[in-house]
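Collaboration report, partner site 2.

Our partner group contributed sequences for two proteins of shared interest, and the home lab folded both. The records are reproduced in the order in which they were received, starting with the first partner submission.
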Amino acid sequence: MSDCAEKRIRRRAAACLAGALLLALAGCGDGGKDQNLMPSKEVGERVVNFFSPMEKADPNAENVARTASDLTIAMAEKALGVTVYYTTYTAEDYQDRTYDDVTMDRARNDMDDLYLLNPDTVMALGAEGKLMDLSGLDSAKNLRDIIRVANTVDGKLVAIPQEVVAYGLFVNMELFQQYGLDLPETPEEFLECCRVFQENGIETPVGANRWWLETFVFAQAYADLYNGGNTQAEIDALNSGAARYSDYMRPGFEFLQTLIDCGYIDAEKALVSEAIEGEGADFLAGKTPIVMAYWGAANSDTAYGKTDFEMQVIGFPSSRGQMPVMPMTGYAVGANAEHAEDAMRVLDIIVSDEALQVYSETNRVISPSKNVSVDCAPALRPLNDRIEEGVYVLGSNAGMKVEQWGNTCRIVRQLLGGATVDECMAAFDQLQDAALGDA
């Protein structure tokens, strides 16, 4: 399978949610040139140039996530008297170049003022000194600790999101009740549930795709690191080479290998399946009891927001019980932005408590501000309760020298394609050695 084909899938993986879309966005095209040209600006007009995955929404569009973001941009435009001009990534405009590839190139060449970035680009551009330090913004004072941890590079807060993207297991409660099963807390309990389902005629208990199986790995790899009270010391050990990422990752990969060996997931199907589109139909039809997805999928009728059965969203199995997994996207300002002052002011408004309340209520998502909360859908309460308790792992962390989300996803796909666990661990060792060699 070509790299081009692999990348094309990512831009469709989470189309219902702007944050999740950005995490998965990439694609192929036929031109390699940017055809989303900004309209002419009037002389003397105060502008901020913003590069993002999507354009401003049409007033009649049904993309709730895009509309929520536009509402906050409009708040900034009105308050500051500026105009935010969008330049957008569209896969058809680039040949075999992902959104990350394009944002890296644009930011390195100071082409825009404001960017919406994936975690790997936050880490890389922050380390290169290409992003402004946002810690002085008034809105930054209200951020949850998790946001600061995930988006701090070399002591600088370089990105702030509008939402916390949380991943969990979506389960069909009626099937669990039918077979007398409690919701699993640990990997062993999860495997037992799968065994019971399979023995009762459900051939493949877990619906999987090629993008999100890494969530199982993160939950098991970092349950203690993020919840054991010694987070920074463990990260420092990884960054110095005193500890190995492969030692953290091995239990999760061995768990996935067991799921494959037992037939609890279909590795061949997962390797070519698009997120939600690959496994969603069987889950909605009541044929598959377990799938994995992001928070917003429980709110969207185009995903799992409207089921004919009782659904709950829980954390992934770990040694510390059900564990939410949270990667981060974030807004950032270019260090050499032409309109840096206005860009910083725009960002300060769109991530203010007032704007985040609007955004969170519109999308029904977890806010990065510790002062903003909204009622979540009933199905999401188990996952939300864990997050509010401070129990979670990060799927991305700019403070780690090895980028987590993208690399782990790629190596999980190697496992699905037939690589051994040892070969996958060797891939992590190579990444760590390369990162330490570049330090």
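Second partner submission, folded after the first:
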Amino acid sequence: MKYSIAKFSFSGKNGGQSIPSDILQISKDLLMSIAGEAGFESFEETAEGVNGYIQAHLFNKTVLDKGLEEFPIPSVKVDYGTADAENKNWNETWESAGFEPIVIGGKCVVHDALHPYEGEQLPIRIQIDAKQAFGTGTHETTRMIIDRLLTMNLNGKRVLDCGCGTGILSMVAAKGGAKEIVGYDIDEWSVDNTKHNATLNNVENIKVFLGDAHVISHISGVFDVVLANINRNILLEDMPKMCEVMSAGAAIIFSGFYTKDSMAIAKKAEELGLSLNKNACDNDWCMMEFTKP
């Protein structure tokens, strides 16, 4: 998979004056939101600004440039340059260090598979060995979906995990009683990582496919629960395909987008005949659950 790197820098529009630290941090957060809509999937804050990483074929330069032209802080100017990213594991340092155990909903603990866990024994325990894949429970969007899954009756349900990443949501669904889970991801690293984590967690009722939402049309049957922790633009584009494989009364849970984008998600869902069931927010990230009549 070919990746590109964009190096974003910030400066004051009036004479290049320095930007106060609080405004700079807000600017970085806004920039990452705008770049996420253009297809960027991971970011690294630097002393100069932000580095963004993206699969080269997903880079929507038009969307990025328009977003920067309309940057909501008038006094801040954002510049960037792009280059091919070195073919390496950008998460290697973080992966080797691991992450602290995360307790969600008082029922589930997610911990790093590389380090022994000696904490409180909860009903659901998920170990994750993250290899260039999103989903350890450290991000607000992942936590919100897991928290919701823990309150649902998944016994005997068929679950679709769109953009499965590490497979963490699939693991929680399996431990929560789901009969069968099907996952897919456009990134080969993620597909392999989901399979690897399924083995670590003794989950045998999951199938994982490589590809985008078009793979849904090759999967037989319908689903009782659909999970999609993906960025806003992909959600809006792929939502019709996801809805086609939902059974009557099925739930679909979206996250991966900011609160400000919730209206666009809700509008598209309404057009597809879905009804809003629940929503939640955490640090300006949003989760929305809809049901199909």
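Feedback sent to the partner group on the second submission included the following. The radius of gyration is 19 Å. The mean pLDDT is 87.
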